[in-house]
Design goal:
Blueprint (H helix, E strand, L loop, with lengths): L1 H18 L4 H29 L3 H14 L2 H4 L3 H29 L5 H29 L4 H22 L18 H5 L3 H16 L4 H9 L9 H24 L2 H20 L3 H29 L5 H30 L1 H20 L9
Helix pairs in contact: 1-6, 1-7, 1-10, 2-5, 2-14, 3-5, 3-7, 5-14, 6-11, 6-13, 9-13, 9-14, 9-15, 11-13, 12-13, 12-15, 14-15
Length: about 375
């Protein structure tokens, strides 16, 4: 599914701005609404999977909905259909996301869980850079016809659904803490202690600093990257991300998460400062590579932290709540980033991100550190 989604994702910002003639502010709005929708849906998919004690049905529904949304991108003639297709695609992601992360926790022991989430991030990201690579080849083969490339993207999406049907199995879960309540109940929220909310707070601030990757594509395009090579932005970022995610997860099992998260925060600061000051493709791609380092150092570790601090019976809901808060943060970040770009320029967008990444680093240096033995 990542191959399919990333083919679309790599070309969608330029499809919106060049083919459809929309503003950068609307690019931020589309991505922000789509990703926040996914995160809100994750709250309920996590709860339902906890209640059912089964993960696979929701994972299958989520992948199927995303696959069905793909043909609507090449059919779009304006903002409405693109937004609807992106909305459906991200609802599918939201449905499958929390049950998938909870299933990983169900089938791994705590001492190797950092490696498990790191491996999941690496495999996800491998598909995420293969998609843009395929998009580059298709753009060359199809004479930069973005709509034709979008049609091809529907094929790997269908294959992903078949893999879920035939290759993924649930694990029976029997445990003493069998009570599972709706995630919107105050009693459920109260069962998640301050350690969980520390994870959420750091994750939210870092998400505010790390707006949609669509802005990386627009930045490279503004600095002279040809249309057919636009997916190269995600190729570079995701290669770095894939190579770094598993080692970061393994190191967190032995060295702890605090140092790695702090390094990740200040790596994002460096990336944003490079992107804000860049006027050449070499410097821009160095900033994009550092963005990938940041993702490798932080994303798998947050999944590990959520799994560590959440009660087993509420693990799916905890992943959902975490993704809800960070998704709302991403909506705000992407809208603000688009408006800053539209009215003050690209530099202001990346300086905004650098400021918030600095705040998250200072939070980690201060009181928002995590007990490595919890």
């Amino acid at each position: 599914m990542d191959v399919s989604s990333e083919i679309v994702h790599a070309l969608l910002p330029l499809f919106l701005t060049t083919t459809l003639g929309l503003s950068v502010a609307l690019v931020g709005l589309v991505d922000g609404i789509a990703e926040s929708t996914a995160s809100i849906v994750k709250v309920f998919s996590g709860y339902i999977s906890d209640r059912m004690r089964r993960r696979k049905p929701l994972i299958l529904i989520g992948y199927s909905l995303s696959a069905l949304s793909k043909p609507f991108f090449p059919l779009a003639g304006g903002l409405a259909l693109v937004l609807a297709a992106r909305f459906a695609d991200r609802i599918g992601k939201g449905i499958r996301g929390a049950p998938r992360d909870a299933l990983i926790a169900d089938v791994t022991s705590p001492e190797i869980r950092g490696r498990a989430y790191g491996l999941r991030q690496s495999l996800d990201t491998t598909g995420a850079f293969l998609g843009p690579l395929l998009a580059i080849g298709l753009m060359v083969l199809l004479a930069s016809d973005i709509r034709a490339v979008f049609w091809v993207a529907a094929v790997p999406a269908g294959l992903a659904v078949l893999l879920i049907i035939f290759a993924v199995n649930d694990r029976d879960r029997h445990h003493g803490d069998s009570e599972v309540r709706a995630p919107i109940r105050l009693n459920d929220i109260g069962r998640l202690d301050k350690n969980f909310w520390r994870v959420v707070a750091i994750g939210a601030v870092l998400t505010l600093a790390r707006f949609s990757e669509a802005f990386l594509i627009l930045k490279a395009s503004a600095d002279g990257l040809p249309l057919a090579l636009a997916p190269l932005v995600l190729v570079v970022m995701n290669i770095v991300y894939a190579l770094g995610a598993y080692p970061a997860g393994a190191l967190s099992d032995s060295l702890g998460t605090n140092r790695l998260l702090l390094l990740g925060a200040f790596t994002l600061v460096a990336a944003d400062l490079l992107l804000a000051s860049s006027s050449s493709l070499i410097t821009t791609f160095l900033g994009i590579a550092l963005w990938g380092v940041h993702l490798a150092l932080t994303q798998g570790l947050f999944a590990k932290l959520v799994a560590r601090v959440a009660p087993l019976a509420l693990r799916g809901s905890a992943f959902g709540l975490y993704n809800l808060v960070t998704g709302v943060a991403l909506l705000f970040a992407s809208i603000v980033a688009g408006l800053l770009w539209e009215y003050l320029g690209a530099d202001a967008t990346f300086l905004f991100g650098a400021s918030l990444a600095t705040i998250s680093g200072l939070m980690l240096v201060g009181g928002f550190r995590f007990n490595e033995n919890s």
